[in-house]
Amino acid sequence: SLQIQEHRYLKVNYESSVDWKQTTDYLRCNPRFHGRPRYDCTLIQLTQDTSVFVQLVFMFKCQLADVDSFELALVQPFAAGIIGAPRRIDRDMRLTRIKAVSRASSIFVPLCSFIRGALLYPDPAHQDEFIVVDRIDSDLFICMKTWTR
User: CA 71, CA 28: separation in Å to the nearest integer?
Assistant: First the structure.
């Protein structure tokens, strides 16, 4: 027998690079969070050497009879970098711009691969492009200095 239990809320604990204390991010993946859709973004460890930004699509726990359970998320990845020369404003302001891949290219990842939450701001002038907001989060600011794409 297979049982699937949806998760709409996840606490991600990580060690802050600023003060080395445990910090918690609260991530939501909810079609009606206070009456509006909310699908947070996070930084995940995709491979041993690569971390990527993703947007949550669906989180769940899968329980198989007589087998351990698995906690997974369906996520929409973001590509690191935009094709072509970097825009002057991005260079001048030291912005990190990423682009959402198609929703059809979403992937399943284990919840244990989540590093921390991330604030990504959609660029209204360029569809599916986002700016990583790292100036108001000192830990993410430090993290972005060494980000392996």
Answer: 15
Distance of CA 109 to the CA centre of its chain: 11
User: Tens digits of per-residue pLDDT, 32-64?
Assistant: 999 999 999 999 998 888 889 999 999 999 998
Instruction: Report how far apart the first and last C-alpha atoms of the chain are (Å, whole number).
Output: 39
Contacts of 146 (CB under 8 A, 6+ apart): none
The answer to whether residues 57 and 29 touch, using CB atoms and an 8 Å cutoff, is yes
Exposure b/e, 88-100, CB count within 10 A at least 16 = b? eeeeeeebbbbbb
The helices-and-strands tally (H runs, E runs) of the chain is 2, 12
DSSP code at position 141 = H
Predicted TM-score (pTM) of the model is: 0.88
What confidence tens digit (pLDDT) does each residue in 57-73 have? 999 999 988 888 999 99
